[in-house]
Structure formats: structure tokens, C-alpha cells
Amino acid sequence: MRLFFAAALIAALAAAPAHSSQLVDRNASNVKLAVNARGEALLTYDADGATKHVLAWGAVNAVAPTSARQQVEFSLDYSGGYGKYHRDYWKTFGSDCGDYDGPPIAWLVVACKASDGSYWALQAWQRSLPDYGVPAAPAQSVWELHLSHWTGPLAVLTIKEDWSYRRFDHLYGSLTYGGGGVFGFRSTPTGSPLDTFGRNVYIDTFGSAYGAGWKRENSFLTHRPNGSFCYGFYPHGGHPTGKGTKYRATVIGPGVTPDVMWQGSSPGAYNRAADLAANADQRAALKDPACKVN
Known about the structure:
Elements: H1 2-14, E1 23-26, E2 29-35, E3 41-47, E4 50-57, E5 75-77, H2 82-85, E6 97-98, E7 108-114, E8 119-125, E9 144-150, E10 156-164, E11 168-177, E12 180-181, E13 200-208, E14 211-221, E15 228-232, E16 246-251, E17 260-265, H3 272-286
């Protein structure tokens, strides 16, 4: 009876839809990806001192932001298919996924092309690092493992650089998918999404006052309705300015599409003509009252 109730509990919990469509686990190693003709993916990896088998299914691509429904998301079965099929499904799963020939993927761990022409990928990056180069606690420095499944073009992360107040490096841009902006409808006062559509832009700075190498500068929400955003490298809350020699930005893709990343060198010394041109471009491209030119 104890074994029966334990199995029933696993079945009830393991096959529930994941709250986050892409986050699978943390600090995974020896990651393997298998895909079958039924539109399922089997992830095998080591984490927390054990080998894990996770079955994923039920989602592809993304829908445009809407308040009428939730974004698409995977169902994840952490018992390797026992919750869905009531047997050790992972042992006979097999694979029907060929070599990956899709677009370049940032933070890539493994990817493949399914027999139906769709793509699956696993990415890993440190989303939870604290802002302003503050040393990370163990829970903040984890490498998150994200799963995606898509057809067609990826989300587009466009970022341009100029200066604010003639001396601070400044980024502005947008996140779009399928020609429309990516944004959410509800968030906390500190900018954490409270729905399945909102997305944060995670900014890292290289070779700054925070120290050598890449450090997290900040993160912030994209704006309605165009997925626009802007950010100045000012001193924030008593922290030194995060001005670096180069910058990068990573965003979790909409729906179950891959996470996207941009990287570029800093804009360099202030140039008035270039700044005026960039200001005009920002006004025309963003049309965002929250991103005032200064």
C-alpha cells in the first residue's frame, strides 16, 4: 500500500504543467536530449547527486501577448514518463532527432531537429545573479537549464547604444516576436513579471568597477506595446557606475522559444553628432514615453 500511494503521488505531481515553460532544473551536467515522433522530448542529466529523466511535451513556439489566455508552456514529468504512462517510459524512449541545422543559439547546451522539422534545444545561463556585481550566494549563482521547442524565426532582441547626459553609457532597444512586441500585463513594483508574458532583460557588464570579467548590472521589464526598453549606466543606490568595455543582454524567449542574447562593445567616448543621431533614432523607433531622451 505504501508503494501504491507513493506511485500515485508521483503520478499526480510529476505530470502537472510547469509554472515556467522553459526552466527545467539547475546546475545540471551530462545533459542529453532525445526527441520522438510523438512530439515528446526526454531530458537526461545529473543534478543534486542523482541522474534525472524528465519527459516534456505539449508546447511549441509562442502566442502574442494577450490577457485572454496564458502563454504556451510544457508539461514536465520528472518521473521520466511514469506520471503520464504509468511505466518506466524513459527506458524505452529511443530518439528520432537529427543534427541541428537551425539558427545560432546563445548559451547552447544541446539541440536537435525533429522528424517533423521542428527544433528542440537546451540552454544554460545564470539568470539569478544579483545586480550591481554584488557577490552571489549559492542560490543566486546557479546555472538554469531551459528547454525550448520551435519552428520558424526566433525572437529578435535589438539593442543600440548611445549616451545619457553626455557621459553615461546608454542602451535602448526592443524585444519582438513574429513582428510584434513581447511584453507582459502585470508585474511587481520591483519589475518581476506576474504573468506568463512579461519578460526581463538581464544586462551584464564586462571589465567594470564591479571587478574583472562579466558581472550582472541590472534587469528590467520590456514595455507595452512594442517590447521596448532603455537603460542608463548611472550610479544606482550607492553602487558605482557599471560602465564596462562591453555589454551583453539575455532574455528568456516568449513562450517556449529559445532565450536570446545580444553582445556589443561600449559606445566609447561621448560623440555629440552620434548621440544626436541616436536620440532621433530612439524617438522614432521606440515611441515609448517611459524612455525619454536625455
